[in-house]
Every structure is written in C-alpha cells, then in structure tokens.
Amino acid sequence: MTIRPILIHPDPRLKKAAAPVEAITPELQTLARDMLETMYDAPGIGLAAPQVGVSARLIVMDCVKDPEEDPRPLILFNPEITWASEERSTYEEGCLSIPEQYADVERPSEVKVRWLNIDGQPQDEHFTGLWATCVQHEIDHLDGKLFIDYLGPLKRQMITRRMAKLKRERARA
Fold it and tell me: Quick check: is 116 in a domain?
C-alpha cells in the first residue's frame, strides 16, 4: 500500500464535485486501500478521493479512537445520504486538507447512508455521533464542499490565508 499526498486548501480540485464510480476496478480498490493507509498515517478519521487528487465518489473512514477497540475501516463507493435527522449536533471539525485548523460545525446528528463496498455490494447503515459527522463531512468533499464553507466569511478567509501561507512555506522547504 502507498501513502498518497493529501491536497491542501486552497486547491481547485477540492472545490469540484467528484465523478460517480461506474465500476469498482482493481485500480479503485487499490486507491481505497491506499486512502485508508494515508488516513491512518496522517492521522485522521476520514478521507475522500478528491483530497488525494482523484475525482471519484469514494470515501474511507474509521472513527474508532479507543486503542482498546478494534479498528473499523469503512470503504464507501458512491455514498449517499438517504435520511437525516431533524435533531442537530455540533462537533469541532478539522480536515486533513486544512491542517491544524478547527471549527464548530452543526449538522444533522443522525444519518442513514447507502453505498457500495469494495466488492461492489450494496450497504446501508444508520450513523450517529462522530460517525454521522464524519460521513457527512466526507460526502461534502465529494460535492466540492469543505467544512470551512459552513463558517462566516471572515473566519473562512482567515483560514484560507493561513493555508495559502502554509503551502508557500512547504513549497520552499
């Protein structure tokens, strides 16, 4: 497996809607496994294909944080939210494409999601808590939306300027 470079905001590829996956090919299965490896290495709890420069409706996630618990890696091709609760919850969100920046984002507290697994089998699950927040955050990436798009314009501009500066510093290093 390969750890892939993660795009940093601002990057126009992060603002584009990802293409639906027509067929789950061996190349896409490899991409999914690489994305899990990249996510764990970062470390993070979710990663979307556009974040590694691939326009495909594919996300990976694992919200198990307790080292005593077994990891629960999920690979979701063409995920879609089929139901969202009216009840809302707020979590402090971060993003591997916006390193070391965090902000409170309000989202539905529960969602039902349908997707295809790595073998092309249909799946659906009811997510709550951190899992619900994470899956919504990652599906947003597939639609070209970042968590900072939920923030006010001043805070969003401030974070975008910090990320542009970080990219310049990394380019010089």
Answer: yes
Judged by DSSP in three states, 1 sits in coil
Distance (Å, rounded) from C-alpha 149 to C-alpha 154? 11
> H helices of the chain, where?
26-41, 129-142, 153-172
pLDDT digit string, tens, across residues 101-147: 999 999 999 999 999 999 999 999 999 999 999 999 999 999 999 99
Report yes or no on 3 lying in a domain. Answer: no
User: What is the pTM (predicted TM-score) of this model?
Assistant: 0.96
> Does 119 map to a domain?
yes
Q: State yes or no: is 169 an active-site residue.
A: no
Q: How far apart are CA 152 and CA 159, in angstroms?
A: 11
Residues 6+ apart with CB under 8 A from 9: 95, 97, 98, 146, 148, 160, 163
Say which of 37, 106, 125, 138 is annotated catalytic.
138
**Strand partners for 123:** 115
CA dihedral 79, 70, 147, 114 (to 10 degrees): 10
Read off the CATH number of the domain in which 68 is found: 3.90.45.10
29 assigned to some structural domain: yes
Chain centre to alpha carbon of residue 143: 11
